[in-house]
Automatic annotation (TrEMBL):
SUPFAM superfamilies: Nudix. The keyword Cell membrane does not apply. The gene is NUDT19. Residues 7-269 form the Nudix hydrolase domain. Fatty acyl-coenzyme A (CoA) diphosphatase that hydrolyzes fatty acyl-CoA to yield acyl-4'-phosphopantetheine and adenosine 3',5'-bisphosphate. Mediates the hydrolysis of a wide range of CoA esters, including choloyl-CoA and branched-chain fatty-acyl-CoA esters and at low substrate concentrations medium and long-chain fatty-acyl-CoA esters are the primary substrates. Highest activity seen with medium-chain acyl-CoA esters and higher rates of activity seen with the unsaturated acyl-CoA esters compared with the saturated esters. Exhibits decapping activity towards dpCoA-capped RNAs in vitro. Keywords: Hydrolase, Magnesium, Manganese, Metal-binding. Its EC number is 3.6.1.77. One of its GO terms (cellular component) is mitochondrion. It catalyses: (6Z)-octenoyl-CoA + H2O = S-(6Z-octenoyl)-4'-phosphopantetheine + adenosine 3',5'-bisphosphate + 2 H(+); hexanoyl-CoA + H2O = hexanoyl-4'-phosphopantetheine + adenosine 3',5'-bisphosphate + 2 H(+); a 5'-end CoA-ribonucleoside in mRNA + H2O = a 5'-end phospho-adenosine-phospho-ribonucleoside in mRNA + (R)-4'-phosphopantetheine + 2 H(+); butanoyl-CoA + H2O = S-butanoyl-4'-phosphopantetheine + adenosine 3',5'-bisphosphate + 2 H(+). This is Acyl-coenzyme A diphosphatase NUDT19. It comes from the Eukaryota. Belongs to the Nudix hydrolase family. One of its GO terms (molecular function) is metal ion binding.
């Protein structure tokens, strides 16, 4: 863990997408050959509703995830992942992004902080553990599949599988133990002879919480994405999480616009990105290829305006060159010049729009900036 951080606590989040239909030949069966969902998508994304008692964004719908625990960096993982120790970053693909431009959460030398587990590994373990705690979805690979997994990684065709045959009672028992003590995630993997499927998670983004927006706690959060063949059994923990929903990206945005639920700006932005891909197969292929490019560190900078607030993102013409720890820049007025914009405009908590005229770095997606729909369709939510 990175105790040197002055403003943020490290965290990891998982954007979990899952197909509507069962296919006999894996993710490729979820391509365009099947009829799309009524919203045009053939997959759903998992959102979890936080408790009203939560200290961070109460009642918000969020992707599964949470704070890094010291056990995520434990040397005990060396035994669990021993088959992959000699592979660079435990079999994870290398990133082309130069080390000096990598976000701090990925670039930090964890050996200097006393952990033999690289950040890319520990952050994925955190995302998988938190997803299991909050939703009951366990993404693991059987130890018996180690040889096949290593070969698939070498061939560049690893896919996400739930990878366990646990009955619901045993799954719930282990879930309760992990919620009680995160280090039990290591114990569970050892006793069940499974590996956390870190290879199915693809690096997607890095968002930092500005001060004073969602309470006193601020997070430096690594966002990963994972595509599943089918929707897994899902449960809320009845404590931090009071409800779960599987819905398409466009349905979620429509429900937000209809004030049926609330999502924070990072979720709004990322779901708007996903609207570029109605096909799960295309999303999976893009996420796999793009992850090798790296990502930017994004901290929204709040700009007061006469009628609304603007959150500037890196690349915007008003974004400060040195934004470390900053939360606001001076008052501004609307400009007729549309060049160099990368911002989230908030008229009120439910009226949000994106203004993006820059080219995204690291071969990433531009979000869909127009409304998700001209009408509010029937939704899962």
């Amino acid at each position: 863990m990175n105790a040197a951080l002055k403003h943020w606590k490290e965290a990891a989040t998982l954007i979990l997408a899952a197909g509507h239909r069962l296919g006999a030949d894996g993710l490729s069966s979820l391509g365009s050959r099947h009829p799309p969902h009524r919203s045009g998508f053939n997959y759903d994304v998992l959102l979890l509703k936080r408790s009203s008692k939560s200290g961070f964004m109460p009642n918000a719908y969020v992707f599964p995830g949470g704070m890094v625990d010291s056990s995520d960096f434990s040397s005990d993982w060396l035994d669990i992942l021993k088959y992959f120790i000699n592979a660079p970053s435990f079999g994870l693909r290398s990133v082309k992004q130069p080390a000096e431009s990598r976000p701090q959460i990925f670039a930090t030398d964890r050996l200097k902080l006393g952990s033999p587990i690289p950040g890319e590994v520990a952050l994925r373990i955190c995302a998988l553990r938190e997803t299991f705690e909050e939703s009951g979805v366990l993404l693991v690979v059987s130890r018996k599949e180690e040889t096949r997994l290593l070969k698939s990684l070498e061939d560049g065709c690893a896919q996400a599988l739930t990878g366990h045959d646990l009955c619901s009672e045993e799954l719930e028992k282990w879930r309760a133990l992990v919620i009680q003590n995160p280090s039990n995630f290591i114990r569970m993997c050892r006793e069940l002879e499974v590996l956390p499927n870190i290879w199915a998670l693809h690096e997607w983004a890095n968002w930092l919480t500005p001060a004073g927006r969602y309470g006193s706690t601020r997070f430096d959060t690594a966002f990963f994405i994972c595509c599943l063949q089918k929707i897994p059994a899902t449960l809320q923990d009845e404590k931090e999480i009071v409800r779960f929903q599987w819905s398409t990206p466009s349905e979620i945005l429509q429900s937000f616009q209809a004030q049926q639920l609330w999502i924070a700006p990072p979720q709004f932005y990322e779901l708007s990105r996903l609207c570029r891909f109605p096909s799960l197969n295309d999303l999976h292929s893009f996420a796999y290829r793009r992850a090798a490019e790296g990502c930017e560190q994004w901290m929204p900078i709040v700009v007061p305006n006469d009628e609304h607030h603007i959150s500037l993102l890196p690349g915007d013409k008003l974004y400060p060159h040195d934004s470390s720890g900053r939360t606001e820049v001076g008052h501004t007025t609307d400009s007729q010049d549309d060049a160099g914009l990368h911002r989230i405009v908030l008229l009120d908590p439910y009226t949000v729009s994106l203004q993006v005229t820059i080219k995204p770095k690291y071969n990433h997606l531009l979000p869909v900036v127009e409304p998700a729909s001209t009408h509010i369709s029937e939704s899962h939510l």
